Amino acid sequence: MDDKAAVLQVHEMCFSYPERPLWAHWSGTVGQGATLVLGGDGSGKTTLLQLLAGDVLVDSGTLTLAGVALHEDTPAYRQQVFWQDPRSSALDALSVQQWWDTLPARYSRWDATALAAHIAGFALQPHLDKALYQLSAGTRRKVLMAAALASGATLTLIDEPVAGLDRASVRYLQQALADAAAQPGRALVVAHYEALDGVPWAQVIELPDEA
Q1: Which listed CATH number (3.40.50.300, 3.30.565.10, 3.30.1300.10, 3.40.50.880) goes with 32-52+80-206?
Q2: Torsions phi, psi for 193 (to 5 deg)
């Protein structure tokens, strides 16, 4: 991909855990549309999303999102990113609706009409007044993904999207991802162990399994 067409540019990224190096001088680009991060358990998919979000900082190297370098202006970089770790308990005390109500102020392209469609598509209406800690793992993921897709964020990061989802929700997700990927100037990065049918993947980043 031509770097000028890239939404996100990663240059010479290095990152390692004490027990395991993950990336050594890795460079790549992410353009508009949907990018699949493909890998099995332990391959580093979630860690890569955390690095791209600026949630975990690289050991060295640069990440530049829509012209904003993470190391130069971290708040402005993160403002362009939607990322919620489905394993985090940080939102547990909030109801679904309370959390969603905080998001339009952060995301300038927040789409309330899209959110309403996702509520219907994921059958979330009965859960809006529940606290997130009360939700099943599958319903929690649907809540997070509904917000991610409605956010309009320049870089939208989604981890293991179908975990705990029923078949109808998986079918809806495939179409919703395809629709979001078609939005101009928007890059979706989805980490999963296999490609989802019906999603027009513009790029696949394949991670080696843990040795």
Answers
A1: 3.40.50.300
A2: -85, -10
